[in-house]
Protein backbone atom coordinates (compact mmCIF):
# COMPACT_ATOMS: atom_id res chain seq x y z
CA UNK A 1 0.00 0.00 0.00
CA UNK A 2 1.18 3.59 -0.56
CA UNK A 3 2.56 5.37 2.47
CA UNK A 4 0.30 8.37 1.84
CA UNK A 5 -3.07 8.86 0.28
CA UNK A 6 -5.17 11.71 -0.96
CA UNK A 7 -6.78 13.85 1.68
CA UNK A 8 -9.09 16.82 1.84
CA UNK A 9 -8.08 19.99 0.08
CA UNK A 10 -7.04 22.81 2.42
CA UNK A 11 -9.38 25.77 2.15
CA UNK A 12 -7.48 28.58 0.43
CA UNK A 13 -9.03 31.99 -0.02
CA UNK A 14 -9.00 33.13 -3.66
CA UNK A 15 -6.19 35.36 -4.94
CA UNK A 16 -8.57 38.03 -6.15
CA UNK A 17 -7.81 41.74 -6.29
CA UNK A 18 -4.50 43.55 -5.92
CA UNK A 19 -1.45 42.28 -4.05
CA UNK A 20 0.97 44.90 -2.77
CA UNK A 21 4.61 43.82 -2.52
CA UNK A 22 6.43 46.08 -0.07
CA UNK A 23 10.22 46.20 -0.17
CA UNK A 24 12.42 47.78 2.49
CA UNK A 25 15.50 48.64 0.42
CA UNK A 26 15.10 49.82 -3.18
CA UNK A 27 18.59 48.97 -4.36
CA UNK A 28 19.90 46.52 -6.94
CA UNK A 29 17.79 43.50 -5.95
CA UNK A 30 14.48 45.33 -5.55
CA UNK A 31 14.75 47.40 -8.74
CA UNK A 32 15.86 44.38 -10.79
CA UNK A 33 12.90 42.46 -9.40
CA UNK A 34 10.40 45.21 -10.22
CA UNK A 35 11.78 45.78 -13.71
CA UNK A 36 11.70 42.04 -14.40
CA UNK A 37 8.08 41.67 -13.33
CA UNK A 38 7.12 44.54 -15.62
CA UNK A 39 9.09 42.96 -18.48
CA UNK A 40 7.16 39.73 -18.01
CA UNK A 41 3.86 41.58 -17.90
CA UNK A 42 4.69 43.34 -21.17
CA UNK A 43 5.62 40.06 -22.79
CA UNK A 44 9.24 40.98 -23.50
CA UNK A 45 10.81 38.53 -21.03
CA UNK A 46 10.25 35.06 -19.60
CA UNK A 47 10.16 34.48 -15.81
CA UNK A 48 13.39 32.48 -15.83
CA UNK A 49 14.39 31.28 -12.37
CA UNK A 50 10.90 31.55 -10.90
CA UNK A 51 9.36 28.36 -9.54
CA UNK A 52 5.94 30.00 -9.18
CA UNK A 53 5.87 30.97 -12.86
CA UNK A 54 7.73 28.19 -14.69
CA UNK A 55 7.88 25.29 -12.23
CA UNK A 56 5.75 22.15 -12.47
CA UNK A 57 4.75 19.60 -9.85
CA UNK A 58 4.11 15.92 -10.47
CA UNK A 59 0.81 14.60 -9.12
CA UNK A 60 0.00 10.94 -8.55
CA UNK A 61 1.90 8.08 -10.15
CA UNK A 62 4.39 8.59 -12.96
CA UNK A 63 2.01 6.72 -15.25
CA UNK A 64 -0.71 9.31 -14.56
CA UNK A 65 1.23 11.90 -16.59
CA UNK A 66 -0.04 14.77 -14.44
CA UNK A 67 2.51 17.57 -14.07
CA UNK A 68 0.68 20.91 -13.97
CA UNK A 69 2.37 24.24 -13.53
CA UNK A 70 2.57 25.19 -9.86
CA UNK A 71 0.50 28.31 -10.59
CA UNK A 72 -2.20 26.03 -12.02
CA UNK A 73 -2.17 23.74 -8.98
CA UNK A 74 -2.47 26.43 -6.30
CA UNK A 75 -4.14 29.84 -6.58
CA UNK A 76 -1.32 32.39 -6.78
CA UNK A 77 -1.66 36.12 -7.31
CA UNK A 78 -1.33 37.04 -10.98
CA UNK A 79 1.55 39.28 -11.94
CA UNK A 80 -0.96 41.64 -13.52
CA UNK A 81 -2.45 42.20 -10.05
CA UNK A 82 0.86 43.06 -8.33
CA UNK A 83 1.83 46.61 -7.34
CA UNK A 84 5.01 47.77 -5.61
CA UNK A 85 6.11 50.09 -2.85
CA UNK A 86 9.38 50.49 -0.99
CA UNK A 87 11.54 52.40 1.43
CA UNK A 88 15.11 53.51 0.95
CA UNK A 89 17.86 55.56 2.59
CA UNK A 90 18.21 57.58 -0.61
CA UNK A 91 15.47 59.52 -2.44
CA UNK A 92 16.13 58.03 -5.90
CA UNK A 93 13.11 56.61 -7.69
CA UNK A 94 13.34 53.03 -8.94
CA UNK A 95 14.65 54.12 -12.36
CA UNK A 96 17.42 56.26 -10.85
CA UNK A 97 18.29 53.55 -8.32
CA UNK A 98 18.42 50.88 -11.02
CA UNK A 99 20.64 53.10 -13.17
CA UNK A 100 23.10 53.51 -10.31
CA UNK A 101 23.00 49.81 -9.44
CA UNK A 102 24.21 48.97 -12.94
CA UNK A 103 22.55 45.55 -13.14
CA UNK A 104 20.32 46.16 -16.15
CA UNK A 105 21.42 47.45 -19.53
CA UNK A 106 20.68 51.02 -20.62
CA UNK A 107 18.37 49.59 -23.27
CA UNK A 108 16.31 47.70 -20.70
CA UNK A 109 16.20 50.68 -18.38
CA UNK A 110 15.03 52.95 -21.18
CA UNK A 111 12.27 50.48 -22.04
CA UNK A 112 10.89 50.50 -18.50
CA UNK A 113 11.70 54.08 -17.49
CA UNK A 114 8.06 55.12 -17.50
CA UNK A 115 7.18 52.35 -15.06
CA UNK A 116 10.22 52.56 -12.77
CA UNK A 117 10.20 56.34 -12.52
CA UNK A 118 6.76 56.18 -10.92
CA UNK A 119 7.98 54.13 -7.94
CA UNK A 120 9.42 56.51 -5.38
CA UNK A 121 10.72 55.31 -2.02
CA UNK A 122 9.22 56.26 1.29
CA UNK A 123 11.63 57.53 3.93
CA UNK A 124 13.48 54.69 5.62
CA UNK A 125 14.04 53.67 9.22
CA UNK A 126 17.80 53.91 9.65
CA UNK A 127 20.34 53.68 12.45
CA UNK A 128 23.99 54.19 11.56
CA UNK A 129 25.44 51.63 13.95
CA UNK A 130 23.60 48.80 12.18
CA UNK A 131 24.87 49.70 8.68
CA UNK A 132 28.10 51.61 9.21
CA UNK A 133 29.23 51.97 5.58
CA UNK A 134 26.11 53.83 4.38
CA UNK A 135 24.90 57.30 5.30
CA UNK A 136 21.18 57.74 4.80
CA UNK A 137 19.81 61.02 3.44
CA UNK A 138 16.15 59.99 3.16
CA UNK A 139 15.30 58.78 6.64
CA UNK A 140 12.53 59.01 9.20
CA UNK A 141 12.81 61.05 12.35
CA UNK A 142 10.82 60.32 15.47
CA UNK A 143 10.62 60.62 19.23
CA UNK A 144 11.18 56.88 19.75
CA UNK A 145 11.50 53.59 17.90
CA UNK A 146 7.81 53.02 18.57
CA UNK A 147 7.16 56.32 16.80
CA UNK A 148 9.20 54.99 13.86
CA UNK A 149 7.17 51.76 13.84
CA UNK A 150 3.94 53.73 13.82
CA UNK A 151 5.24 55.76 10.88
CA UNK A 152 5.94 52.55 8.95
CA UNK A 153 2.43 51.33 9.81
CA UNK A 154 1.13 54.61 8.43
CA UNK A 155 3.10 53.98 5.23
CA UNK A 156 1.63 50.47 4.92
CA UNK A 157 -1.94 51.64 5.47
CA UNK A 158 -1.46 54.60 3.13
CA UNK A 159 -0.22 52.27 0.38
CA UNK A 160 -3.17 49.97 0.94
CA UNK A 161 -5.64 52.81 0.67
CA UNK A 162 -3.94 54.52 -2.27
CA UNK A 163 -3.73 51.38 -4.39
CA UNK A 164 -6.96 49.80 -3.11
CA UNK A 165 -5.10 46.65 -2.11
CA UNK A 166 -6.76 43.41 -1.11
CA UNK A 167 -3.57 41.98 0.44
CA UNK A 168 0.09 42.85 1.00
CA UNK A 169 3.39 41.14 1.78
CA UNK A 170 6.76 42.54 2.84
CA UNK A 171 10.13 41.18 1.67
CA UNK A 172 13.31 42.70 3.14
CA UNK A 173 15.68 43.63 0.29
CA UNK A 174 17.83 46.14 2.19
CA UNK A 175 21.37 45.84 3.50
CA UNK A 176 22.86 43.34 5.91
CA UNK A 177 22.82 44.74 9.43
CA UNK A 178 25.60 44.37 11.99
CA UNK A 179 25.66 41.01 13.73
CA UNK A 180 23.57 40.77 16.87
CA UNK A 181 22.48 38.01 19.22
CA UNK A 182 19.03 38.06 20.88
CA UNK A 183 18.92 40.42 23.85
CA UNK A 184 16.48 40.63 26.80
CA UNK A 185 14.32 43.07 24.81
CA UNK A 186 13.58 40.27 22.31
CA UNK A 187 12.34 37.81 24.94
CA UNK A 188 8.61 38.55 24.53
CA UNK A 189 6.22 40.82 22.70
CA UNK A 190 5.64 42.80 25.89
CA UNK A 191 9.34 43.47 26.49
CA UNK A 192 9.81 44.30 22.80
CA UNK A 193 7.01 46.89 22.81
CA UNK A 194 8.43 48.43 25.98
CA UNK A 195 11.79 48.50 24.24
CA UNK A 196 10.31 50.28 21.22
CA UNK A 197 8.85 52.95 23.49
CA UNK A 198 12.20 53.34 25.25
CA UNK A 199 14.24 53.16 22.00
CA UNK A 200 16.20 50.15 23.20
CA UNK A 201 19.59 50.10 21.41
CA UNK A 202 19.24 46.37 20.63
CA UNK A 203 16.19 46.91 18.41
CA UNK A 204 17.38 47.07 14.79
CA UNK A 205 15.63 48.85 11.90
CA UNK A 206 14.70 45.52 10.29
CA UNK A 207 12.88 44.53 13.48
CA UNK A 208 10.90 47.78 13.35
CA UNK A 209 9.76 46.99 9.80
CA UNK A 210 8.85 43.42 10.76
CA UNK A 211 6.91 44.58 13.81
CA UNK A 212 4.99 47.14 11.74
CA UNK A 213 4.20 44.59 9.03
CA UNK A 214 2.94 41.92 11.43
CA UNK A 215 0.88 44.46 13.39
CA UNK A 216 -0.77 45.47 10.10
CA UNK A 217 -1.52 41.90 9.06
CA UNK A 218 1.27 41.71 6.46
CA UNK A 219 3.42 38.53 6.12
CA UNK A 220 7.16 39.19 6.43
CA UNK A 221 10.10 37.49 4.66
CA UNK A 222 13.66 38.34 5.73
CA UNK A 223 16.01 38.50 2.73
CA UNK A 224 19.15 39.30 4.76
CA UNK A 225 21.00 37.48 7.57
CA UNK A 226 19.73 40.02 10.11
CA UNK A 227 18.32 39.06 13.49
CA UNK A 228 14.72 40.01 12.76
CA UNK A 229 11.69 37.73 12.94
CA UNK A 230 13.80 34.92 14.39
CA UNK A 231 13.22 36.30 17.89
CA UNK A 232 10.67 35.17 20.50
CA UNK A 233 9.02 38.60 20.51
CA UNK A 234 8.24 38.78 16.82
CA UNK A 235 7.36 35.10 16.55
CA UNK A 236 4.87 35.70 19.35
CA UNK A 237 3.39 38.57 17.37
CA UNK A 238 3.20 36.39 14.24
CA UNK A 239 1.29 33.73 16.19
CA UNK A 240 -0.97 36.28 17.84
CA UNK A 241 -1.98 37.81 14.50
CA UNK A 242 -1.88 34.50 12.58
CA UNK A 243 0.80 35.79 10.21
CA UNK A 244 3.31 33.70 8.22
CA UNK A 245 7.00 34.62 8.49
CA UNK A 246 10.01 33.24 6.67
CA UNK A 247 13.76 33.70 6.38
CA UNK A 248 16.56 34.24 6.30
CA UNK A 249 19.10 35.50 3.72
CA UNK A 250 18.34 34.83 0.04
CA UNK A 251 20.11 31.69 -1.21
CA UNK A 252 21.46 32.82 -4.57
CA UNK A 253 25.11 32.36 -5.61
CA UNK A 254 27.82 30.55 -3.71
CA UNK A 255 25.57 29.00 -1.06
CA UNK A 256 23.25 27.72 -3.78
CA UNK A 257 26.24 25.91 -5.29
CA UNK A 258 27.34 24.57 -1.89
CA UNK A 259 23.91 23.23 -0.96
CA UNK A 260 23.70 21.51 -4.35
CA UNK A 261 27.22 19.98 -4.36
CA UNK A 262 27.50 18.92 -0.71
CA UNK A 263 24.46 16.57 -0.91
CA UNK A 264 26.13 14.83 -3.87
CA UNK A 265 29.33 14.24 -1.88
CA UNK A 266 27.40 12.82 1.06
CA UNK A 267 25.20 10.69 -1.21
CA UNK A 268 28.33 9.01 -2.63
CA UNK A 269 30.05 8.98 0.80
CA UNK A 270 33.03 10.99 -0.41
CA UNK A 271 35.02 12.71 2.31
CA UNK A 272 35.63 16.45 2.50
CA UNK A 273 38.80 17.67 4.20
CA UNK A 274 38.44 21.35 3.35
CA UNK A 275 36.17 23.87 1.68
CA UNK A 276 37.59 27.33 1.06
CA UNK A 277 35.20 29.99 -0.27
CA UNK A 278 35.84 33.56 -1.28
CA UNK A 279 33.67 36.20 -2.96
CA UNK A 280 34.33 39.50 -4.66
CA UNK A 281 31.53 41.94 -5.32
CA UNK A 282 31.25 45.66 -5.73
CA UNK A 283 27.65 46.73 -5.32
CA UNK A 284 26.08 48.37 -2.27
CA UNK A 285 25.94 44.94 -0.63
CA UNK A 286 29.71 44.58 -1.04
CA UNK A 287 30.30 48.02 0.44
CA UNK A 288 28.13 47.22 3.46
CA UNK A 289 29.81 43.83 3.98
CA UNK A 290 33.21 45.53 4.03
CA UNK A 291 32.32 46.39 7.63
CA UNK A 292 33.39 43.53 9.97
CA UNK A 293 30.15 43.58 11.97
CA UNK A 294 27.96 43.27 8.88
CA UNK A 295 30.29 40.62 7.46
CA UNK A 296 29.88 38.64 10.69
CA UNK A 297 26.12 38.39 10.02
CA UNK A 298 26.77 37.08 6.51
CA UNK A 299 29.57 34.74 7.65
CA UNK A 300 27.34 33.07 10.23
CA UNK A 301 24.66 32.65 7.57
CA UNK A 302 27.09 31.11 5.05
CA UNK A 303 28.96 28.83 7.44
CA UNK A 304 26.00 26.88 8.77
CA UNK A 305 24.91 24.98 5.67
CA UNK A 306 27.73 22.46 5.23
CA UNK A 307 27.72 21.06 8.75
CA UNK A 308 23.97 20.50 8.65
CA UNK A 309 24.13 18.80 5.25
CA UNK A 310 27.21 16.65 5.85
CA UNK A 311 26.33 15.67 9.46
CA UNK A 312 29.85 15.01 10.78
CA UNK A 313 28.41 13.51 13.97
CA UNK A 314 26.95 10.71 11.83
CA UNK A 315 29.88 10.45 9.40
CA UNK A 316 32.96 11.29 11.49
CA UNK A 317 35.41 9.49 9.19
CA UNK A 318 34.30 11.65 6.27
CA UNK A 319 33.59 15.11 7.68
CA UNK A 320 34.68 15.42 11.32
CA UNK A 321 37.93 17.25 10.50
CA UNK A 322 36.66 19.36 7.60
CA UNK A 323 38.10 22.88 7.49
CA UNK A 324 35.58 25.45 6.24
CA UNK A 325 36.47 29.08 5.56
CA UNK A 326 34.40 31.90 3.99
CA UNK A 327 35.64 35.31 2.84
CA UNK A 328 33.93 38.30 1.21
CA UNK A 329 35.94 41.06 -0.43
CA UNK A 330 34.66 44.42 -1.59
CA UNK A 331 35.91 45.10 -5.11
CA UNK A 332 34.13 48.11 -6.68
CA UNK A 333 35.00 47.42 -10.36
CA UNK A 334 32.98 44.19 -10.28
CA UNK A 335 29.68 45.93 -9.46
CA UNK A 336 26.76 43.54 -9.14
CA UNK A 337 28.57 40.80 -11.07
CA UNK A 338 29.74 38.83 -8.08
CA UNK A 339 32.38 36.11 -8.37
CA UNK A 340 32.23 33.18 -5.99
CA UNK A 341 35.30 30.96 -5.96
CA UNK A 342 35.46 27.63 -4.12
CA UNK A 343 38.31 25.21 -3.61
CA UNK A 344 37.04 21.86 -2.32
CA UNK A 345 39.45 19.19 -1.11
CA UNK A 346 37.78 15.79 -1.14
CA UNK A 347 39.02 12.25 -0.63
CA UNK A 348 37.81 8.87 -1.80
CA UNK A 349 38.64 5.16 -1.83
CA UNK A 350 41.69 4.33 0.31
CA UNK A 351 41.88 8.00 1.32
CA UNK A 352 43.25 9.29 -1.98
CA UNK A 353 42.83 13.09 -2.26
CA UNK A 354 41.06 14.91 -5.09
CA UNK A 355 40.11 18.53 -5.72
CA UNK A 356 37.15 20.40 -7.19
CA UNK A 357 37.34 24.05 -8.25
CA UNK A 358 34.18 26.11 -8.75
CA UNK A 359 34.30 29.61 -10.19
CA UNK A 360 30.78 31.02 -10.32
CA UNK A 361 30.70 34.39 -12.09
CA UNK A 362 27.13 35.26 -11.29
CA UNK A 363 24.88 38.28 -11.40
CA UNK A 364 23.70 38.56 -7.82
CA UNK A 365 20.50 40.53 -8.39
CA UNK A 366 19.55 38.49 -11.46
CA UNK A 367 19.60 35.38 -9.24
CA UNK A 368 17.82 37.12 -6.36
CA UNK A 369 14.96 38.74 -8.32
CA UNK A 370 12.98 35.52 -9.01
CA UNK A 371 13.53 34.47 -5.39
CA UNK A 372 11.83 37.69 -4.25
CA UNK A 373 8.92 37.01 -6.60
CA UNK A 374 8.44 33.44 -5.44
CA UNK A 375 8.64 34.36 -1.77
CA UNK A 376 6.13 37.17 -2.15
CA UNK A 377 3.61 34.94 -3.96
CA UNK A 378 4.12 31.92 -1.70
CA UNK A 379 3.88 34.02 1.48
CA UNK A 380 0.61 35.45 0.18
CA UNK A 381 -0.56 31.90 -0.55
CA UNK A 382 0.38 30.83 2.99
CA UNK A 383 -1.69 33.61 4.51
CA UNK A 384 -4.72 32.78 2.37
CA UNK A 385 -4.33 29.11 3.33
CA UNK A 386 -4.35 29.94 7.05
CA UNK A 387 -0.70 28.99 7.53
CA UNK A 388 1.03 31.08 10.17
CA UNK A 389 4.31 31.20 12.04
CA UNK A 390 7.57 29.96 10.49
CA UNK A 391 7.12 28.65 6.95
CA UNK A 392 9.75 25.91 6.91
CA UNK A 393 8.52 24.65 3.53
CA UNK A 394 10.12 27.78 2.02
CA UNK A 395 13.61 26.77 3.23
CA UNK A 396 14.46 26.25 -0.47
CA UNK A 397 15.03 30.01 -0.77
CA UNK A 398 17.17 30.66 2.31
CA UNK A 399 20.83 30.44 3.34
CA UNK A 400 19.82 30.14 7.00
CA UNK A 401 16.31 28.65 7.08
CA UNK A 402 14.26 29.43 10.15
CA UNK A 403 12.88 26.41 12.01
CA UNK A 404 10.59 25.66 14.89
CA UNK A 405 12.35 25.63 18.25
CA UNK A 406 14.36 22.46 18.83
CA UNK A 407 14.62 21.48 15.16
CA UNK A 408 17.69 21.73 12.94
CA UNK A 409 17.30 23.48 9.58
CA UNK A 410 17.22 21.57 6.30
CA UNK A 411 19.88 22.92 3.91
CA UNK A 412 19.97 20.25 1.18
CA UNK A 413 18.56 22.02 -1.91
CA UNK A 414 16.91 18.85 -3.23
CA UNK A 415 15.25 17.89 0.06
CA UNK A 416 14.09 21.50 0.39
CA UNK A 417 12.48 21.38 -3.04
CA UNK A 418 10.77 18.06 -2.25
CA UNK A 419 9.42 19.55 0.98
CA UNK A 420 8.12 22.62 -0.87
CA UNK A 421 6.37 20.59 -3.55
CA UNK A 422 4.90 18.14 -1.02
CA UNK A 423 3.46 21.10 0.86
CA UNK A 424 1.75 22.26 -2.33
CA UNK A 425 0.43 18.72 -2.91
CA UNK A 426 -0.90 18.67 0.65
CA UNK A 427 -2.70 21.98 0.15
CA UNK A 428 -4.59 20.49 -2.80
CA UNK A 429 -5.33 17.13 -1.19
CA UNK A 430 -2.92 15.25 -3.47
CA UNK A 431 -0.77 12.27 -2.47
CA UNK A 432 2.66 13.20 -1.18
CA UNK A 433 5.51 11.86 -3.29
CA UNK A 434 7.56 9.42 -1.21
CA UNK A 435 8.80 7.20 -4.07
CA UNK A 436 7.24 4.23 -2.25
CA UNK A 437 4.11 3.80 -4.31
CA UNK A 438 2.18 0.71 -5.42
CA UNK A 439 4.78 -0.20 -8.04
CA UNK A 440 6.94 -1.57 -5.22
CA UNK A 441 4.22 -3.95 -4.10
CA UNK A 442 2.90 -5.28 -7.43
Q: Element order, helices and strands?
A: EHHHEHHHEHEHHEHEHEHHHEEEHEH
Give the uncertain stretches in residue-range form.
1-5
**CATH structural architecture of the largest domain:** 3-Layer(aba) Sandwich
Share of helix, binned: 25-40%
Report the strand count: 11
Structural class: alpha/beta
Structure notes:
With 442 residues, this protein is an alpha/beta fold. It has two domains: 19-250 and 366-427, Rossmann fold (3-Layer(aba) Sandwich); 254-361, Dihydrodipicolinate Reductase, domain 2, CATH 3.30.360. Helix content is 38%, strand content 15%. The chain has 16 helices and eleven strands. The protein has helices at residues 28-41, 51-54, 70-73, 94-101, 106-111, 113-116, 145-163, 189-197, 205-215, 232-240, 254-267, 284-289, 292-310, 316-319, 364-384, 413-427, and strands at 19-24, 82-88, 122-123, 167-172, 220-222, 244-247, 271-281, 323-330, 339-347, 353-361, 389-390. The chain has a seven-stranded parallel sheet with strand order 3-2-1-4-5-6-11, with helices on both faces. A four-stranded mixed sheet has the order 8-7-9-10. Strand 9 (339-347) and strand 10 form a beta hairpin. Helix 1 packs across helix 15 (364-384). The termini are close together. Mean pLDDT is 93; it is low at 1-5.
